[in-house]
Specification:
- By secondary structure, the protein is mainly alpha-helical.
- Helices cover 40% and strands 7% of the residues.
- It contains five helices and four strands.
- The strands form two sheets. Strands 1-2 form a two-stranded antiparallel ribbon. The chain has a two-stranded antiparallel ribbon with strand order 3-4.
- The longest helix is centred in the middle third of the chain and has 18 residues.
């Protein structure tokens, strides 16, 4: 059997597999926006979400920002999240990142210690971010 015909290859996922830009837009719409000078802005609906949702939306926003603006990197270091418009106390940022990384496995950390949402996780987040409330 040729390796190209191997059905097990369908089980391989890539962190950077195709991204559904419309889904990403839909998840961020009304919650996160960007100014023309590349600043992330948090809309009123963002502040009505749980801490986990906030971190997920911030990381999804970083992904969108890296696509929209050349030279931007996907993901954030904890200190960068803490500096963002006082979205939550620093202790909450760190504990929420740890929970999302170790408990729910919805985010990853790269070698530069930047947290990000892998593309293959985004469809799973769609139902969570639309049904979960504070």
């Amino acid at each position: 059997m040729a390796t190209d015909d191997n059905p097990l290859k369908n089980l391989i996922i890539e962190e950077n597999q195709n991204l559904d830009l419309q889904l990403l837009t839909d998840l961020l719409a009304g919650r996160v926006a960007f100014t023309s000078d590349r600043k992330m802005q948090f809309m009123p609906a963002f502040h009505d979400t749980s801490n986990q949702q906030k971190i997920l939306l911030v990381l999804l926003g970083a992904k969108a920002k890296s696509i929209l603006f050349e030279g931007e990197t996907d993901g954030f270091a904890p200190s960068e999240i803490i500096e963002l418009d006082d979205i939550m106390p620093s202790g909450s940022v760190k504990s929420t990142l740890k929970s999302l990384l170790e408990d729910t496995h919805e985010i990853k950390k790269n070698s530069d210690k930047r947290y990000y949402v892998p593309n293959y996780i985004i469809p799973k987040l769609a139902s969570r971010l639309t049904r979960e409330t504070k």
